[in-house]
Amino acid sequence: MARSVALAHLARHARSHLLPLHLRTCQCRERGCHWHSRHRGCTGPIRLLLARERGGRVWRLADTCSACAAATEQAAVVPDTALARAPRSAALQRHKRQPKGPGERIRVCEMLNYLAAALPESTTAAARLLALQCALRMDATMHVQLARGMLRGQRLDSPDLWRELERTRWLRNNPWNATNKIRAELLDTPLLDQAPARRDRTQAADWALRVTSSTSAQRRADPLLQLAALYLIAHADPGTSTGHADLAQMARACGTRCAQLSDLLGQLAAMELLASWQVCHHGGDLSWHLAR
């Protein structure tokens, strides 16, 4: 609960102090790029980065370029959709549907980055996949209903996964019953700041299901492979099928360690999801090209 309160507090600061795009600069570069290990230089669009230090006792919100954001450990990019200001009245919110904004792939990408910071590092890949579906499908009261058949098809229907998320105080699961729906209340209040309407978020959740179901990782019944495949596809440019990310950030988002990612990437290449991939061990950058 304390984590949720802290993130809600930071979200309010993010919206109230956000500068126009033409005035935003890389604050990391202005400070000599001391917030991260060395990399190949500042580049890319400006992003609002949420980073934590000293085990979560210190939090920092700062504008950085995409390269610095990817190189910063224990950090996540604040989704642009979360920075949209709330409607002026509850009536307006009820009667006027919010614009769609970014597409399904970008929403999934943003939510994976958010959950990397919101969930404890020890959270398993399967629980992260479940949390992704819950976060994208929740209603305005932070309640979610997931069809048992859908979860069974994704191998996410184990009660142990719900208990794992309950232990982190990220959600509160209703008593397990024999109905076709599984209900839960999410406790991560910053999720209320998602700007896209629920229908658009549901489409993003459906897109994530289609991606994980269509890859060979689904047949392996390995949640870590499924989550890694989803991360790579969501973070890739749909036009060029190429992507780049910080290796430590991907490991954090997948609930694993950097040392295990090389083996995972090799398996995904063997399954013909990746055409190629490369890790710059000096800077910790990962680049890849999707096979299709």
Structure, described:
The protein is built from 13 helices and nine strands. A hairpin with a 7-residue loop joins strand 5 and strand 6 (181-186). The strands form three sheets. The chain has a three-stranded antiparallel β-sheet. It has a three-stranded antiparallel β-sheet with strand order 4-6-5. Helix content is 44%, strand content 17%. The termini are far apart. By secondary structure, it is of the alpha+beta class.
- Can you write the helix and strand succession as a string? HHEEHEHHHEHHEEHHHEHHEE
> Gap between N and C termini, in Å?
41 Å
Q: Can you count the helices? A: 13
Per DSSP, what share of the residues sits in E-state strands of 2 or more residues? Answer: 15-25%
pLDDT < 50 runs, ≥5 residues: 85-101
- The shape, in one word, is globular
- Number of DSSP strands? 9
Give Rg in angstroms: 19 Å
Main sheet summary: 3 strands, antiparallel
Question: What structural category arises from helix and sheet content?
Answer: alpha+beta
Please tell me the overall pLDDT: 80
Order of adjacent strands in the largest pleated sheet: 2-1-3
Oligomer: single chain
Helix content: 40-55%
Key terms:
9 strands; 292 residues; alpha+beta; single chain; globular; three-stranded antiparallel beta sheet
Q: What's a quick, concise take on this entry?
A:
The protein has helices at residues 2-16, 27-30, 66-71, 90-95, 104-118, 125-137, 148-153, 159-167, 198-214, 216-219, 223-234, 247-254, 258-270; strands at residues 46-53, 58-65, 75-77, 143-147, 171-173, 181-186, 242-246, 274-280, 285-290. With 292 residues, it is of the alpha+beta class.
